[in-house]
């Protein structure tokens, strides 16, 4: 984890999302590669077993309360599965028109949701069918598969490369927000606004900013420290998903839609969307509570 954090410190010197197209492409290729490998290994294991190992009711628990905690945690994991709303506007800001940026993003979002849902369902279903109640939280890194060794190692390398790129893509909105806020707050401070060129042998020159170096390094160190302190894959994903899902993917878009379309209070559409937003809020709360309980249980066990 410390090595991963060191790599992220170096990668954080990339100025902004406009300069990260190659990172996004590499991360996407790695994601598709290990997803195909996981899907293929799960399907092969089901065929080798000759039967489906899982059940419709899912993993059993000692009592109803434990089962509910697992369900709530799963809701948090599902909420984390579609976190692109965090970076949607940042990506749209990098596009050029024509065609209009919002139409391009709408088409891209539909394709992305279809592709990711296909892989999520296939990998999740075939993984559970292959291992049943013993299914690890991560099929490839949780030692669900052992052979062929070279293919598992290659898939895990793809996961690492994907996470390196994914970390940077999802951190860029935070970096950009910090840059903008400090530039407005301290417009005459050289530490925040001055940029310097750094030229290394065999590499193109790239700009460096003292504030970016300090802030982004501190950010990576803090997130790496949290990862070392709480190394619980599914539970941490559930917390992050539950925290970000309702406000970013549901509440703000619904409120903006009301303003944009001038939806009147207590109209049919207003009531339906309010109910939808409230139901999603309850889902987020349940996912957050279940995931926090999972972290506490793991920490105390």
Which descriptors apply to this entry?
auxin signaling pathway; cell membrane; transmembrane helix; two-stranded antiparallel ribbon; Amino acid transporter transmembrane domain-containing protein; 10 helices; amino-acid transport; 301 residues; mainly alpha
Account of the 3D structure:
71% of the residues lie in helices and 2% in strands. The chain is built from ten helices and two strands. A two-stranded antiparallel sheet has the order 1-2. The mean pLDDT is 84.
Fold topology:
Layout: H1 2-11, H2 21-49, H3 64-80, H4 88-92, H5 101-131, H6 149-185, H7 190-193, E1 196-198, E2 206-208, H8 210-229, H9 233-261, H10 268-300
Antiparallel strand pairs: 1-2
Domain Amino acid transporter transmembrane: 1-296
Subcellular location: Cell membrane; Endomembrane system
Keywords: Amino-acid transport, Auxin signaling pathway, Cell membrane, Membrane, Symport, Transmembrane, Transmembrane helix, Transport
From the helix content, strand content and strand pairing, which structural class follows?
Answer: mainly alpha
What is the terminal separation in angstroms? Answer: 22 Å
For the report, how would you describe the main beta sheet?
Answer: 2 strands, antiparallel
Q: What's the assembly state of these chains?
A: single chain
Mean pLDDT: 84
Tell the overall outline.
globular
Helix content: over 70%
Figure out the total of helices: 10
- Please indicate the percent range of residues in DSSP E strands (runs of 2 or more): under 5%
Output the helix-strand order: HHHHHHHEEHHH
